[in-house]
Every structure is written in structure tokens, then in C-alpha cells.
Amino acid sequence: MPRELSPLTQAVDDLFTRIAVLRAGEKRFLASAAHEMLTPLAGLRIHADIALRARDDGARERALARIKQSVDRTARLVRQLLEWSRHDMDRNASDETATLGDAVDVVALELEHLFSQRGVTLQVSEEARALELPLSRDALVIALRNLIENAALHGPENSRILVGSTGDGFYVQDCGQGIPPRNVDALLEPFARGSTPNIPGSGLGLAIAVAALLPRMTLTFELVGQGFRVRAYPVAQSADDTRPTRTI
């Protein structure tokens, strides 16, 4: 082969390698998504059968409550899968901005039932409410929803979640124990879960939040006093350098 063609050959080989990696990733994602869907659907079938066979009101009501939990879990998973599928097609336009307070109000209304179930209070500082961020409104709502929902699910019951300002960005802080440093990178992958498998969730929340923020903002993770803080801030480097960082 002529020496002049070597760079072209190498570039083509690299392209095919990247395509193979992407296809393998898509297959893993689809397999994981199918598995995640089967779990709540199987629960629906089991508890529907129990409700149909129940002879007393108490057993029937317990089965119906379980059905509702499975429906809620399925609905949350479908919503997150749709958000994940959109993240590459709906990148933040360079001229769009959104107000944090408006996005928080949308999220607070959507998660009102979860807050009530967990006894969680959401507190937002006035400085944070006034923040104008370099994101589309939809992207900011998606990122906030997943960060706040994660905090409500994985933080203690009867606690509070704080949304505050860092000047050029914002943070979401709960009263939980946080993520061990060795687990941070793994938990940014789709369907990754921490050490609390009994807590409902799909393992998509952090990955979706990162995808919604990029390429204009990114995340760090910090242990602060008695809580765990996820901080979002504008990306100073080039848009190609999109790896979230951590400070824990």
C-alpha cells in the first residue's frame, strides 16, 4: 500500500472502531432497558392476580397499592428513557437561556407527590431563583427533575433538599451520605445503581442530568457538612471535553 494512503486507512479503521463501540453500547442500553421494563411489568401481573383472587378488602387494597407502585415505577422509567433518547437530538442551542426559578417551579409541581410520600421539603434560595443559565428551558427542567428526584429518593425521609446558587451555576443538596468516590464514574453510566438496591429507581437519573446539561454545563459532586451536593456550572473548556468532574 502506498505510504500516502496510510493516514486515510488509519482514519477509516478508527471510524469503523468507533461505530462498533457505539453499536455495542446501543445493544447494551437496549438490553438493560428491556430488563428494567420487565421488572415492574412482572410486578403488575403478580399483584393484579392477587387482587383478583383476594377475598378480603385488606388484601385487595394492599395488592392495588403494589400495582400503583409498579405503574409509578414504569411511568418514571418510560419518561427517563424518552429523555435519554432525546439527549443527542436536542442539544442546547448557543443562544438559549433559562431562569432557574421557573424550572424549579415546574419540577416541584411534578414531584409534589414524591415529596409528600417521603416527607421531603424543597427549599430554593432567592439567588438561585434569579439565575439565568445557558440552557434551554426543557434541558434545565430535565436536569433539575432528575437531580431533585434522585435527592428525594436516596436522601433520608423527613428531610430537606436545598437548591442554591454558586454565582455562575447552581447546586442541589440533600442530607444523604453521598456517593463513595470509587463509585462516581460508574454511576454516571446508564442503569448504574448505588449500594441501595431496595430504593426504587432505574439508574438513569445522573446520566440524564449530565446529558441534559452538556455541552454548556457540567457537574461536580461534593460532600458538604451533613449532606451531599451536586453542583452544576458552565463549561469553560471546549465543548468536546464533556466529562463530568468530581471533588469528593
Residue runs with pLDDT of under 50 for 5 or more positions: 237-248
- Kindly report how far apart the N and C termini lie: 51 Å
**Helical residue percent?**
40-55%
Largest sheet: 5 strands, mixed
Number of helices: 8
- Average of pLDDT: 76
Which shape, going by the Cα principal axes? flat
Observed structural traits:
248 residues, alpha+beta, Helix Hairpins, Heat Shock Protein 90, 2 domains, two-stranded antiparallel sheet, flat, disordered C terminus
Written account of the structure:
Residues about 235-248 have low confidence and may be disordered. The radius of gyration is 21 Å and the shape is flat. The chain has helices spanning about 5-55, 55-85, 100-110, 110-120, 125-130, 135-155, 185, 205-215; strands at about 100, 120-125, 130-135, 160-165, 170-175, 215-225, 225-235. It contains eight helices and seven strands. With about 250 residues, it is an alpha+beta fold. The strands form two sheets. It has a five-stranded mixed sheet with strand order 2-4-5-7-6. A two-stranded antiparallel sheet has the order 1-3.
What's the arrangement of secondary structure elements?
Layout: H1 6-53, H2 57-86, E1 98-99, H3 100-110, H4 112-118, E2 121-124, H5 126-129, E3 132-133, H6 137-154, E4 160-165, E5 170-174, H7 184-187, H8 205-213, E6 217-224, E7 227-234
Parallel strand pairs: 2-4
Antiparallel strand pairs: 1-3, 4-5, 5-7, 6-7
Helix pairs in contact: 1-2, 3-6, 6-8
